[in-house]
Amino acid sequence: ETGVTQTPRHLVMGMTNKKSLKCEQHLGHNAMYWYKQSAKKPLELMFVYNFKEQTENNSVPSRFSPECPNSSHLFLHLHTLQPEDSALYLCASSQDPGLGGTQYFGPGTRLLVL
Amino acid sequence: AQSVTQLDSQVPVFEEAPVELRCNYSSSVSVYLFWYVQYPNQGLQLLLKYLSGSTLVKGINGFEAEFNKSQTSFHLRKPSVHISDTAEYFCAVSALAGGTSYGKLTFGQGTILTVHP
User: Fold this and answer.
1) pLDDT tens for residues B51-93?
2) Residue A92 contacts by C-beta under 8 Å, 6 or more apart in sequence?
3) Has residue A83 got a pLDDT over 70?
4) CA distances (Å), B44 to each of A88, B11, B39, in order?
5) Cβ–Cβ below 8 Å for B49 and A100
6) Is the pLDDT of residue B25 over 80?
7) What is the least distance, in Å, from the CA of B18 to any CA of chain A?
8) How far is A39 from chain B, CA to nearest CA, in Å?
9) Chain B residue numbers touching A92 (CB-CB < 8 A)
């Protein structure tokens, strides 16, 4: 688990705030992912980056804005969120998006939108 | 596209009893299959995966799973559980190759395993 770190671990924000979630992987992987985990719902893939290029945007609202400056770092910029956006946001990385490669997950950021 | 159904949302068992967590999937293409575990306040950790070869896959912590292509199932089993196995377990699939689903993990809803003393 220490191969993928996420900060902050907990975040409370108002609907008018702007905040950012950070993910860092120390595994030398080329692909990074953002997932949303809501109560009683399956994990939802939000974004995929491969070699710093976004290869997947799973119809995510524009109030979520990802950024991948290099293969080790991934950010999720948040602005004008809604209470229904409250969830656990998980970052993951893998060597390759395909070929059955294992995705390694961080501990997540627990987000509460008031 | 793929879909995954975990047939039990909660499974309570007593310590040292055997357990089976059920997973069925649907896909128009061949898939890789995974089981992940999530302990409280942690991210997901891979338990085991099936890519090819033997349909019986052994993973960490004494877990194993069997791929049954005809029944499109990938059930997770452990012959004797411990208190420390209490966690949420997720079954997932990803497309073998090609198409818009390539490389994407599709998860089931999760099964909460609670082991009682």
Assistant:
1) 888 999 999 999 999 999 999 999 999 999 999 999 999 999 9
2) A4, A32, A33, A35, A103, A104, A105, A106, B43, B44
3) yes
4) 12, 19, 8
5) yes
6) yes
7) 26
8) 10
9) 43-44
